[in-house]
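Duplicate of #3305? Posting structure anyway:
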């Protein structure tokens, strides 16, 4: 199956696709440029909310090249200034105003007509002055110097211009489509219409966080055939069925039963976070198998789950002797999550290996259960959720039945269980997730979704990653990135679903 996603293309592929889509017709390109610029403005103003919002009297620096990226940046600046009447803009033309191509020149004329004296032409020399000498620092910089048609080398003068801008104390640095020449240091890169591969590789170190702005280039039934692509970007549409009406004749059994096995005296909170997330996933039933000494406290915290006490090792881990507790109930499960908070005690790891080797239901394997001898055991479909360190442990293991969720700044979903070798990328989330417990919540969310679609582990993994990331974005917009806790992400899952429904 192909998930709700769009292809990530090389610069050459992007150019060929746009040539087929627009045929060089400026009358068709102009509305697309307007959509791109306005989409950039809307997205960056939304992202500004993570640091308190765009300041109403803020100053905007716009770096403009010759072509479409410069036009996009100018239209974005116009949209920002239209929303904030006290804001002002300074435009620096990297190659001079006369070098503007027709559509970029049109965007410049429309900006000056719309905002009048609130926009001025800036001088490159002024940007080289020490930041302390500037009376009013910029709130926003829009980088529209080079687009995907850029070819090295970049001139020393333009490189110096970008370097000087990088040194300024700007609250948000936004690259339009790609960071110019791989030199501009962006907080966010807004990929307009198509995500280009340099954002992931060549320019990845300076791209900051990537936002994909869907301009409708890949709409079903469009006039141009869409490349399949080995790399694809996930869209909110993957969540659409979760945002829709549920069947009025359904009951709790309709939505699956997820089992969670985890916890230890050393790491009691991890499995609780997994269960709390599973309860928010839409699964009909959640049963948790945890060390017996924790049941009372956990049941008081989450009475919606069914808690089963498991015999403990002397160190407080899950003991082998409790395996019958799962074996006698596994027929009721539609999905299983193992690993959160189990620690690395040898007896517990042996137990988990036996569970994975014999489970008849699909399984999410997380945290310390991500060991080579565990992930390669048995034949049940499985979803593995490693971060970089855990991936290093299991990279060489046999994973024929696995969907791999490689967590990171950009989370990638791949593996032999994905069709045609496709790798899906999720750009949702961000530094707000860079804290302990985020992975435990993701595992529970994926497990609950897997219980609802046990024959589609790839779909469950993608939905979990996108949903979790979108909720994290909503949390950051509401409360910032710093003074939050991991479980607050769960409170924004509903908002994320409604958002995904609105984008359909």
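Output from current build:
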């Amino acid at each position: 199956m192909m998930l709700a996603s769009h292809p990530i293309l090389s610069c050459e592929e992007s150019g060929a696709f746009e040539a087929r889509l627009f045929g060089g017709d400026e009358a068709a390109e102009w509305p697309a440029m307007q959509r791109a610029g306005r989409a950039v403005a809307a997205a960056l103003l939304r992202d500004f909310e993570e640091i308190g919002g765009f300041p109403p009297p803020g100053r905007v620096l716009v770096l403009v090249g010759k072509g479409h990226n410069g036009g996009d940046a100018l239209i974005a600046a116009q949209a920002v200034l239209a929303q904030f009447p006290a804001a002002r803009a300074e435009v620096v033309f990297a190659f001079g105003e006369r070098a503007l191509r027709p559509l970029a020149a049109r965007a410049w004329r429309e900006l000056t007509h719309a905002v009048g004296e609130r926009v001025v032409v800036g001088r490159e020399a002024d940007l080289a002055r020490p930041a302390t000498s500037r009376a009013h620092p910029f709130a926003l910089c829009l980088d529209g110097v080079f687009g995907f048609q850029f070819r090295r080398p970049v001139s020393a003068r333009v490189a110096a211009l970008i370097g000087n801008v990088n040194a300024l104390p700007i609250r948000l640095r936004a690259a339009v489509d790609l960071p110019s020449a791989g030199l501009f240091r962006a907080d966010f890169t807004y990929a307009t219409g198509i995500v280009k591969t340099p954002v992931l590789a060549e320019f990845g170190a300076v791209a900051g966080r990537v936002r994909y702005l869907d301009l409708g280039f890949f709409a079903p039934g469009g006039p141009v055939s869409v490349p399949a692509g080995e790399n694809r970007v996930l869209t909110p549409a993957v969540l659409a069925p979760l945002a829709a009406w549920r069947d009025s004749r359904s009951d709790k059994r309709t939505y699956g039963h997820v089992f969670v096995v985890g916890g230890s005296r050393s790491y009691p909170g991890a499995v609780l976070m997994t269960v709390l997330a599973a309860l928010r996933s839409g699964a009909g039933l959640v049963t948790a198998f945890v060390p017996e000494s924790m049941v009372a406290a956990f049941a008081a915290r989450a009475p919606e789950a069914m808690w089963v006490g498991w015999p403990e090792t002397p160190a407080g881990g899950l003991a082998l002797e409790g395996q019958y507790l799962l074996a006698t109930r596994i027929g009721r499960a539609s999905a299983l999550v193992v690993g959160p908070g189990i620690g690395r005690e040898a007896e517990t790891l042996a137990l988990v290996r036996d569970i994975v080797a014999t489970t008849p239901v699909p399984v999410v394997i997380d945290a310390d259960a991500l060991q080579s001898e565990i992930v390669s055991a048995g034949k049940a479909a499985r979803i593995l959720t490693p971060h970089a360190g855990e991936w290093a442990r299991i990279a060489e293991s046999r994973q024929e039945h696995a969907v791999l969720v490689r967590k990171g700044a950009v989370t990638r979903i791949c593996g032999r269980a994905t069709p045609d070798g496709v790798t899906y990328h999720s750009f949702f989330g961000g530094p707000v997730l860079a804290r302990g417990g985020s992975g435990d919540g993701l595992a529970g969310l994926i497990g609950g979704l897997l219980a609802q679609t046990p024959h589609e582990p790839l779909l469950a993994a993608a939905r979990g990653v996108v949903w979790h990331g979108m909720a994290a974005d909503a949390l950051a917009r509401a409360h910032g990135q710093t003074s939050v806790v991991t479980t607050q992400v769960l409170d924004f899952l509903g908002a994320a679903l409604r958002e995904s429904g609105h984008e359909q």
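Confirmed duplicate; merging threads. The first helix runs from residue 11 to 22. The two ends are 20 Å apart (CA to CA).
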